[in-house]
Structures are given as structure tokens and as C-alpha cells.
Amino acid sequence: MIFRQLFEPVSSTYTYLLGCEETGRAVLIDPVVNSIERDLAELARLGLKLEYTLDTHIHADHITSARELKQKTGSKIAAPAMDCLPCTDLGVEEGKPLQVGRLSLQPIHTPGHTDGHFAYRLDDRIFTGDALLIEGCGRTDFQNGSTDALYRSVTEKLFTLPEDYLVYPAHDYKQRRISKIGQEKDRNIRLGQGKSLEEFREIMDRLDLAYPKFIDYAVPGNKQCGVCPTDLPERLHHYCEQMARTPQG
């Protein structure tokens, strides 16, 4: 397998490029619109054909590049079926693998951050989106989020995976790239060390997080599989413009 972890610094988003060495087919998990040229260049450098873009959920902090990549490469748009987005080519459901060449991604419904959130397992790697972050988790106070649902998603689905499975989150704000299920069970300050549901509720209630500054533009744009709004304020233009530098790992 060909694997690249790519970082978009405006929203601190990780995009994952997975390629099948035998067929040259590839998928991008959680691609970001202002990093589209970086991703196209990486695909070309590796000699890969983009077959799918795959989002973990309807994002509130960035706009997906699914639509633009489809226009530029002919790729198909895959996203959770329960979000009922008319612009998707393939609705992802739990128990129905997504095949990309010889790679078989297993969708896992992990609601809580949003009601339509999915994680994706590939062999011993789990791409957790915003459900499980490194020593943290996504917020649960918008987009039909639910603290109780997120607790169940993590403790009953993700934490039951083998402890040596690698955790690749959708974001990190401290320059961390990877964790393991066992590490999160031990060190996650919100959900680890056997936290009870009541303890998790108290932790999430105390967060007192600010209203997301890009949500009113990102969510409508992502419901169209990646449309940048025409009325975007100047202070937010960097969310949709190409950046001079997009670090990658």
C-alpha cells in the first residue's frame, strides 16, 4: 500500500492518501479544498489515479475538495449515506466495504461529533475523523451531535479494536500525527482510563467552546460536496484560497 499523511494548516486537518500498488487506484480521506493542488501533485508524483474522495462527515471547519477533484480527475464522491447528499456517487454504510483496487476500507458508524460521522478501518489502521483525536475527541454541541452517542461510539466500537491498531485522526493541534488504540485507552483525557459516561458528560459540559468561526459557510458548502461561498468575508478567504505552503508528512 502507498500511504501519505498530508497536513492542511489553516484548519489543522489531516488528509490521508491511500493507494493500491497493484492497480494504481487511490482514495483521499477528508481532502481540503485549499490544498487541492498539493493533492493533485502528490497523486501525479506517485503515478496514482484518484478513484474516490471519502469524507468522514460533513465538516464545520473546512470545505472538502470532493467536488473539484471530481471535476479535475473524474473521481467519485463517497460520503456517509445517511447524510443523503445528492452530490455523492456512493453512499457509505457500515458493513459494506469500500473497495479501491486491492484495498478494502471498512466503514464504522461513529456518531456523536455529528450524527452521520464515520470512521474507516484499513487492516490495522483506523481513520477516526473527529470522533477520536489524539488524547481528545471532537465536540458534540452542533450538527445533531450527542455526548452520549460519542461515548458509545468510542468505547463500544473504537476501543474494542486491538490495542496495537494505529489511530489516524482528522485533526491535531499540537503537531502530533499518530496514536494507537491502546494509548488512547490509557491516555485520552476525556475518554480513557475507563471514564464513565457520567464523567464524560461532565467533561464535555465544562468545555465552554466558542462558536465555530467557519461553520456557517463550511456546512452549506459541504452539503454540496465542496462549494466555496461567494459571500465569504475577507478575514476567512484563506479557507478557500490556495496557500503558498502546505506542509505534508
From TrEMBL:
User: Can the keyword Metal-binding be found in this entry's annotation?
Assistant: yes
Query: Is Transcription regulation included in the keywords of this UniProt record?
Result: no
Query: What GO terms in the biological process aspect are recorded for it?
Result: glutathione metabolic process; hydrogen sulfide metabolic process
For this UniProt record, give its keywords in alphabetical order, as a comma-separated list.
Answer: Metal-binding
Q: In terms of domain of life, where is this protein from?
A: Bacteria
Listed GO molecular functions? metal ion binding; sulfur dioxygenase activity
In Pfam terms, one family for this protein is Lactamase_B
Annotated Metallo-beta-lactamase domain ranges read 12-171
Q: InterPro entries from the entry?
A: Metallo-B-lactamas, Mito_Persulfide_Diox, POD-like_MBL-fold, RibonucZ/Hydroxyglut_hydro
This chain belongs to the protein called Glyoxylase, beta-lactamase superfamily II
